[in-house]
Fold:
Amino acid sequence: MITTLLLFLISLQAYSFDWQGHRGARGLYPENTIGAMKEALKYPVTTLELDVVISKDLEVVVSHQPWINPEICVSEKQNIFTLNYSDIVGIDCGSKFFARFPKQQKVSESKPRLLALIQETERTLKRLEGRVVAYSVEIKSSVDGEKQKLQPDYKTFSDLVVKILKDSLPVSRFMIQSFDWRVLNYIHEKHPEISLVALKKGSYKKETVLVGLDFVPKVFSPYYKDLSEQDMAYFHKMGMKVIPWTINTVKEIQDIKDMGVDGIITDYPQLIMEIDQKHCRGKKHLFQGKCITYPKHAIPSHLNPGWSCGPGYTIKRDSCIKIRVPTHSVLGADGKTWYCKKGYVRYRSKCKKL
Structure:
């Protein structure tokens, strides 16, 4: 198992496909806990995804909701922003049965501080022969959250999170994501070196989906059922990676991966081992770990962009167009260069009779 996992990780690094463990390993272990991150590391994830909120004493707490959720915690519903962390840490958010994820281990776990989670995860990584993963941290901010006093103002919220991440990790090893694009604009302006992820929920028009953002983010992350192949080509042309959420069956993961996405977010990281990494379905070609669609009259290639135009065609933007050859000429063996027939000589772009 260890040897297989190591080889799998090497292949993933070579192709730079981003396998993200959602809230650690939500399907297997209580979400957004230190234990969930350790559980995810048993599998070939390349990024640990997690969410953060703020406590009354301005601690950055790892939690999906800005309240204590009675569905997963042994507690009544409480606003985390009204509680000091000393009140939060004693609440059991792991031993309660969670019907949506019946395979989840039942262990007593508390909501950790972001700093503690990073520190403990980094210690675990050192024991795993220096394995390296990234962190994708969602700032759970919203306009309504501010109005309902579930959080500080979005700028304070962002500053608290950024400080911990930059003090704990190199910038290359974390991304910040949010549905609140005020957060993304603010962080981009203050810290343009940080990779940002624009989260999107619900249907959208690809041409206007980034309205409200002052920049093009590194990653666009929609709900996977809202994503189409036409969207993929558009977003890639804009220079964004596409990493959809949250996909939890082998078939759906394989299907979405075959669309050419740059990563997958899943609650069940053990499923990664079941995905065919060396095969693309339909008329697709595996290039740098992703399945790409190549245009008509093109052939697969190991060079960027993963395809080249076939004989008699030349590349123009994202298509292959027929090479126009002058009268009395023929294409050479390379299928690209033309030569004048016998009895004719090349004159500029024509063949002139001798």
